Amino acid sequence: MLDPVRYPAAELAALYHQRWEIETAYYGLKVTLRGADRVLRSRTVDGVEQELYALLVLYQASRRAIAEAATTAHLDPDRLSLTTALHTARLTVITARTSDPAGLVSSLVHVRNLAPVRRRSRTSPRCVKRTLSPYAYNKTKGSVGHKTTVTTDVTLLTSTASP
């Protein structure tokens, strides 16, 4: 990957960005959909398998609705929020005035229901989170933003050569 002709920097940067979009999708499946503190409730292998398939079906249906809404609005599907799609789906099912699946989907995929106003900027640099500890944290260790101003005076000494 050190060959700049074979692996252009712009292409690698785009792939890196896409990788983080995929990581965000995995996060959506594991945390947003299932819940961070929830465990699978089944006590049998078949039950766990059924729960996993149900989560995957719900995730796929949500992502498909997001993709349809994004296509309609000419947006990138990664710009639409999975959390908002899940909340909209719950509200749509709860307050449904029709049992027609097409009517439910059409109200869900309306892009104004799913599109965030704008993506938030990163507020902190990427770093490894520190573990929780009852002891005080040494802030000087591994400090990223530490700056020191150094002033240096240089004096040139010239010597006169004597024969």
Automatic annotation (TrEMBL):
Entry-linked InterPro entries: RNaseH-like_sf, Transposase_11
Superkingdom as given in the UniProt entry: Bacteria
GO biological process entries: DNA transposition
A GO term, aspect molecular function: DNA binding
Domain Transposase IS4-like intervals: 4-59
Name of protein: Transposase IS4-like domain-containing protein
